[in-house]
Fold:
Amino acid sequence: MSEVRVAILRIEGTNCEDESARAFQEAGAVPERLHLNQLTDRSPADLRRSLEDYDIMMIPGGFSAGDYVRAGALFGARLRSAIGRDLRAFVEDGRPVLGVCNGFQVLTELGLLPAVDAIMTDHPTAVLAPNDSGRFECRPTFLRYGGADTPFTRELSSGDVIYAPSAHAEGKFLMEGDAYERLMEGGQVVFTYVTPDGSPGGFPWNPNGSPLDIAGVCNPAGNVLGMMPHPERSVYRHLHPEGWRGVRDDMWGDGHRLFESVVAAASR
Structure:
């Protein structure tokens, strides 16, 4: 297996880069936490990096730029301005991109998700809106995998229910017109919120009120995945809310399967 390099992008306010790096490391990759400036000429030469040198890119959770304007908007605008062409080329090349929580918001603001009509749209075509509860929700959440073909989910079978906790105030995935129908028809709904036994449950199992219980979507090619729940916080078996009961019979939690899957895909 060849060395898989992962770029984990951050700016001020990002706060999930360490556990994200650990998740990729446990899956056998070589992660590097990069400030956005390191991918531009605003960084000293010895710290400068090129996105082209990485096999996977991730935008982790947090509160980038303090969530001013709206969650993910400023990080998305800065990414588009600084490295928009490089991002488009990275995705067009088929390399995997993961956005979790604030990262999902950023990918949506960038136009890389849901990207039904283009690799990277000029303007957002969806939004992660405030939760129906009107407050920050930090809860155990369970996700049903719908069978979408992505490099992140090849260790899963359609219908599998996995655990990944949620922690967000703006996670309600909204689109206009017939967009939901097109998303479903295109196989872009990767994860939906369910109860622990896999049934539809509404609040609190759907912590934000997303229509169709949408928790995660991919682009039409499947190599860009955005999800509100945090798989990097369920990498180890002991992080499951039931502890050691009712989950895998080794040290790994459900989140490990996503990182293990994408690293294996990128190493081929």
